[in-house]
């Protein structure tokens, strides 16, 4: 880029901008979730560092029409592990997640309404509900509403009774993890 005949290097200019972290945080909060996921970490080292901080992900907005083709989504609970912001958000965006093939919910408080929303993802092949308060009825709804489900991870879903036919159905899946299975191979250990 040339300004008044002088060659300007945008990277040098960017590095010269000295703003407090609070200003950069405010700027980063205005960047869409999709842009944060796709390319914000490529802007500069400061943005890479700030994207690793929890504030960057306090709000995940999937209302953007570009998210309609989303295939994979991982959400981890917060607020003491109950994940209240997650399940209320998930209920609202579930209709836009029609093309979702993989969903990982770790330590998220799942309500019957949330499970009902999850039970309408016909292309879902892999579901991990790590540490969920899932019930047998919710699990039945998911199994009926997600006919392509081939991988189901229910580790730490300790309230489930899988001794009946629903347990048999789960165990027949290509990849099934029981509520009491070890977490040692889980990639997002807390």
**Backbone CA Rg:** 21 Å
The percent of residues in helical segments reads 25-40%
- Write down how many β-strands occur, each being a DSSP E stretch of 2 or more residues: 7
CATH class of the largest domain: Alpha Beta
Physical arrangement of strands within the biggest beta sheet: 3-4-5-6-7
Number of domains: 2
Strand content: 5-15%
Q: Treating each run of at least 4 consecutive H or I residues as one helix, how many helices?
A: 8
Shape: elongated
* Poorly predicted tracts of residues: 79-84
Q: What is the rounded distance between the termini? A: 46 Å
What does this structure look like?
The chain is an alpha/beta fold and 190 residues long. It has eight helices and seven strands. The chain has helices spanning 10-16, 21-29, 33-38, 45-51, 84-93, 112-118, 136-145, 165-171, and strands at residues 2-3, 6-7, 72-76, 102-106, 126-130, 151-153, 175-177. The radius of gyration is 21 Å and the shape is elongated. The N and C termini lie far apart (46 Å). Residues 79-84 have low confidence and may be disordered.
